[in-house]
Amino acid sequence: MTRQDLPLDFGDPSDLTRLRHELRAWLAEHPLPERRPDExxxxxxxxxxxxxxSGGWVGLDVPEEYGGRGLTALHQVAVSDxxxxxxxxxxxxxxxxxxxxLEFASHEQRARLLPRMLxxxxxxxxxxxxxxxxSDLAGMATYARRAEDGGHYTINGQKLWTSxxxxxxxxxxxxxxxxxxxxxxxxxxFVLPLDRPGVTVRPLKAANGDDEFCExxxxxxxxxxxxxIGAEGDGWPLAMTTVNYERNALDTGHLSKYGLLLERLRRxxxxxxxxxxxxxxxxxxxxxxxxxxxxxxARRRTAERLAGRTAGPESxxxxxxxxxxxxxxYETALRVLPDQLAEAGGAxxxxxxxxxxxxxxxxxxxxxxxxxxxRLLRLxxxx
Length: 383
Ligand SMILES: Cc1cc2nc3c(=O)[nH]c(=O)nc-3n(C[C@H](O)[C@H](O)[C@H](O)COP(=O)(O)OP(=O)(O)OC[C@H]3O[C@@H](n4cnc5c(N)ncnc54)[C@H](O)[C@@H]3O)c2cc1C
Prior knowledge:
It is a single chain. 45% of the residues lie in helices and 13% in strands. By secondary structure, it is α+β, with helices and mostly antiparallel strands. Strands 1-4-5-8 form a four-stranded mixed beta sheet. A four-stranded antiparallel beta sheet has the order 2-3-7-6, with no helix packed on it. The termini are far apart. Flavin-adenine dinucleotide binds at residues 125-129, 134-135, 161-163, 357, 360-361, 363-364, 366-367, 370.
């Protein structure tokens, strides 16, 4: 395996350097898996997740008592960085759900749920969005009615765009539990086992052919009070914690991949005989700037996390920067590597298609700008 220069050099302390070397040695002994022709992308990633966990490369910053390695965010960043640099498939995207449970679940719930989430024994999905409540999440209609004896709830409603629900055992579900309280105060979070009677999971095909999304129908689903995360009404802060981690710039595996693709574009243009396409040099130049800004950002966020700061509304800045970098890079890549377009199954083409969703998932770009205006700049609302 040829190693490229890594974008993130935090002036590694020695234990971090040791960790990077350990991971490289493990990768040398465990070649990256290939996706089988008949294997769904999600199942391939799940196989990779289990393989990584068996090597000790999942949940580095999760406390040991909950199945992690009890190290720091910096160790997790170093692992993402190394994996990205050798073009490994993505690191399992469970960090934001794990953080939500770490911050809001009881000790008993964390001890029971987190270790199996980290091993991949239990796959999880996130049941927030609904047909009428995506950006306006607080307007959700799914309702959990509490029984008079307080022991359980009955849930009715519909969720939409629930990624990987068809493969999941649990859904981190938001539902309204109060019709009187203000919208944000009336939302409660639950851990819903998806094999419960009354749950119907219907997969939807995405533009890139993947079967990522699902609709989730909930008809008189019984859920125990012990399956609630936090108190009634804690659902909104839990949701904001989840999305703040989801939007944060710490998934540095993407950075390594962008760096490698930029280098490929540079080499391709350098070696090309004849003229270059119009405007391509400035397009690549803008991609380089986006990339450098993201690297600087990832450093800053890592330093903040090490100083004990949790992810907050500033993650909206990261999300906008990541979206811009990703979308511009893949648009530019298709101009430089047009054969990727012809070969529709080509990796760059697949990444290009997925990059179009970056301005929607985890909250749209417009919503990120609203958050920056309201929460960071404290600007008054225009209406
Ligand atoms: C790849 C992918 C994976 C996803 N996975 C999940 C998942 O696992 N779980 C989950 O719960 N959801 C998931 N989602 C859903 C995602 O969170 C929503 O699509 C997103 O929040 C937008 O909601 P919406 O689609 O209902 O669009 P809408 O909220 O209907 O927005 C439509 C348009 O109006 C704009 N708009 C809306 N309100 C405002 C406003 N106040 N100011 C300015 N503009 C506004 C939006 O920016 C957008 O352009 C996923 C989405 C994608 C693309």
